[in-house]
Each structure stands twice: as C-alpha cells, then as structure tokens.
Sequence to fold (429 residues):
Amino acid sequence: MYLNSPVTQFESFSLTTEPNPEEVEIDKESSYELPPLTRPSLPPSNNGDGGIYLAQRGNSLALQKSDELQKTLLGHRHERHLVILQDFPDPDALSCAWAYQLIAQQYDIKCEIIYAGTLSHQENIALVKLTTLPAQRWTMQTLKNKDLSSYQGFVLIDNQGTTSQLLSAVQQAGLPLVVLVDHHSLQGELKAEFVDVRPYVRATATIFTQYLQAGLLGLDSSISQHVKCATALMHGLRSDTNRLMQAQEEDFMAAAYLSRFYDAQLLNAILQANRSKRVMDVIERSLKNRIVQNNFSIAGVGYLRYDDRDAIPQAADFLVTEENVHTAVVYGIVHDEDDELEVVIGSLRTTKLTLDPDEFIKEAFGQDSTGRFFGGGRTGAGGFEIPMGFLSGGNENSAYAKMKWEVYDAQIKQKLLKLVNPRDNPIQS
Fold:
C-alpha cells in the first residue's frame, strides 16, 4: 500500500524514535553504539518554511520505510550479507547497492556486492573504476568455491531475483532474504523481512536517497567515499529517468539533495566514456537488420560475446531516435564460451507514453514453467532474457549456428509482431 500524505511540518520528518523492546531486542551489555537517525540540514528557503525535501507523493511512505529498515538492520547487527544485483547491473543498481553497504556498516553488518554477469557498458565500467565502487563478479563457478554458511542472509537491490543466476544458489544454501528494495513492478512472490517496492518511482536511487535524507546515513562532503557514492546515485537516478526527462517530483527532490554532495567533474568523466568498436558494430548491425512497422523498429543482431551484452540496449537507444519510430526492440544470442552458456537477450526503448514496456514484454514472451516472466520493464524501457537450454552450444558448425539463429529470430519477430501488427505473419513471409 502506498501512502500519499504530504508532510506539512518538518518536525514530522524526524525518525528519532525509541525502538519498541518487544520489536527489537538489544543486548544491553554490548559496547556497540547504535547510530541515531538524524534530521538532514536544510538550505534556507525564501518562503520561510524551512524547505521540504521529500516529494509529497512519497513522504509518509518514505518515512515509514526508513523507520522499518532501521529496525530491520538493528536486528541483524554483526552479520554478513550478500547484496545480489541483476546479472548485468546498471548504474541504478550499482549505486544503490553501495549506498546500502554504507548504511549497513553503521550497524556492523558486512555486505559484499555481487553479480553473476559482466559489466560491458562503457559508462558502467567507468562508474566502477573511477569511483572504486566495491562490486564483485561471482560466476556460478565462483559460487561453487564459496562457503555460503559464513553469511547470515542476502539482499536484493533494484531487482527481484528474476534476472540473477545467483538467486537459486543462495536459496538452496538456506540463506534468508533480509531486504528487498526495487522500483520495478512485482515479479512474483518473495518473502523478505523488509520490502520496499515502489513501481511508481522512476529510480531505486530515489528511494535510497530518501533513506539518506531520513538520516539512515549522514552524507559528509569531506568524506571521499560519501562524495563518490552520491555521484554514483546521481548517475543512477539520471540514467533511469532518461537524463531526468522522465523524472517525477520525488526524483527531482532526490537529485536536489544529492547536488549538495556529488562531484560534477567525476560524473562528467563517467558520462564521457567512449563506446567501443564492438558496440558500434552491433549498432551498425541493428541498423542493417531492422524492420519498421507501425512505428516499431525491430532488429535482430545475431550472436554476441557475453562481454558485449550491453551493446544491445545501446543499439535500442540509437534506433528509437529514428524519425517516425516511437519504440525499438533489439535482441541477439549472447554466448559465453567459457561456461558454454547461451541466452537470448533483448532490450526495448520507447518514447510512447501510452506503451507500458512491462506489460508489452510480459504479454509478448510470457513466462516459464515455474511462473517467472522472461522479462519486464519500467517507464520507457524494458528487457527480456530467454534461456536456450538444450539448444545451447554447437556453434562451431557455422551452418547449424545460422539455422539456429534464423529459428530464434523468426520466433521473436512472430511474438512481437502479433502485438505490433496482428495481421502480419513473419513465418509465412
């Protein structure tokens, strides 16, 4: 349930409440000192009201959720957690995981930020390198050599487990889901101790910035790590709101707060990262192979290396800028030669306000035998991943590889065009 009550007095912004002893049991003999929630300092306001930093739509919920998260963290002091991101994490996921790690540190909770895929988008690589963001790649092979019994729980940030290979492994190890924070539509039933899922919010970075504003972490511009994290959050917020063009009031308020701490030169350096030649080749392939019907541009780009996966959304970003095109879908078969893994991966970008990417992708591709959807989305963007299972591999035979691609290409076009133009039948044509 989402509450929309505005905060009319800044005093109601405070979360400095005494924990209920029945709700949170605190070891009085422990020398550990709990970090209090503090009120954020506000800049002067012309109208003398002191300024209100949280947008009206999410005030009550943001305060409530910040309070709940604090109580959850209090109950897990001195533990070790895994923060699991989607296989190909974006700036929103990376920055929020880092913010969560810094918040959790105050409660002596040690977090490791992990993802199973790779960073291939040039801005994501630059973000991690230039800010020294502490994210680690754990492949399924890496996971086999890890002792998961040393962790007491796991956390999902900017995803609900449907886009991570690691979820099943940690669940099989018996680790409980402690925290789930996301801004995508609900993907299924997940039992977590703390849940904050707000599909109407444009970026998970907005949610985490509200946690910071509420006092879960007092940002200090004299601390380099805080400045870099604020810069990462600003990048995540900017990325998921299409450079703030799709931002709502809450997102603008979050950006205004972060503007007091982030490093503009560092953010500019991240945004100026150059596209690789391989990315440009995929964009060229998408232009060559695209078909345009009813203002939809659909392009299959064939086989890609696992490390070049992020070229697909960049190609979709490019195709949607074409005249008389409001929606672009780009897809390809991504293969990892080391793990003999193959998966069909696609991205959707749209400027059409009445098209819901989440509904469109779910209707087009449906779900697997366990009830999990093959994809989903948010405002303006979406993606899908379809495992190839038994048909994976065998690409050393060029004729077989070509035949396999033609089958998948025709099937994906068939499913998309049933929605774009029901009268068209690409299999017959």
